[in-house]
Amino acid sequence: MIAMGITLEVLREKLTNWKGCDLAKTANAVLGEGNPHATVMFIGEAPGQKEDELRRPFVGAAGQFLNELLASIGLKREDVYISNVVKFRPPANRDPEPIEKEQCMPWLMLEIALVKPKVIVPLGRHSLGHFFPSKTITEAHGKPFQLTDAITIFPIYHPAAALHNGNLRASLMSDFRALGEYLATKE
Ligand code: URA
């Protein structure tokens, strides 16, 4: 249950002072950003170096590619909400540990509760694993799955994975086309 008056701004302020995850000792807090009433929410893994520096999600190379993918289906960053499972950069960009994902999860749950997206796009396996632990990104990408009556999950590969892999890049572009077509049915 969310206390009345909680907004994304309040959440951001509270996260800045939160020390509930060990990663907070070595990294800056990065909450999601974008349209506070977005229909679509993209959820990545954890901030990288650039995100840590600027305290904003997806502003490095993977973020550039995400911007291009969004543009390919007529969306701008400001139209959607973009966040991460883990709110702090893991040292040397290692994979987040299960405990770090668990500790940071309440922040993501609050973001989802406040934004109320109709479609959630997990980017990569860490994010997908939160919603459907038994599905793999290889089998699930590019297709809609109903989570609740109100929320559809539409998993897509992580854009960083495609930066140096032409096949994955083509797969991401075609999954975004499928996402665009799916979103058109929701309007
Ligand atoms: N990769 C992520 O998963 N999240 C970011 O914010 C940037 C890169």
Description:
With about 190 residues, the chain is α/β, with parallel strands linked by helices. It has a single domain (about 30-185), classed as Uracil-DNA Glycosylase, subunit E (3-Layer(aba) Sandwich). It has eight helices and six strands; from the N terminus they run αββααβαβααββαα. The chain has a six-stranded mixed β-sheet. A hairpin with a 5-residue loop joins strand 5 and strand 6. The radius of gyration is 15 Å and the shape is globular. Bound molecules: uracil.
Sheet with the most strands, sense and barrel status: 6 strands, mixed
Helical segment count: 8
Strand content: 5-15%
Ligands and ions found = uracil
Tag the structure with descriptive keywords.
single chain, 187 residues, alpha/beta, Uracil-DNA Glycosylase, subunit E, 6-stranded mixed sheet, 6 strands, globular, binds uracil
Secondary-structure map:
Blueprint: H1 8-16, E1 33-34, E2 40-44, H2 49-54, H3 61-72, E3 81-84, H4 98-115, E4 119-122, H5 125-131, H6 137-140, E5 145-146, E6 152-153, H7 159-162, H8 166-186
Parallel strand pairs: 2-3, 2-4, 4-6
Antiparallel strand pairs: 1-3, 5-6
The structure holds uracil.
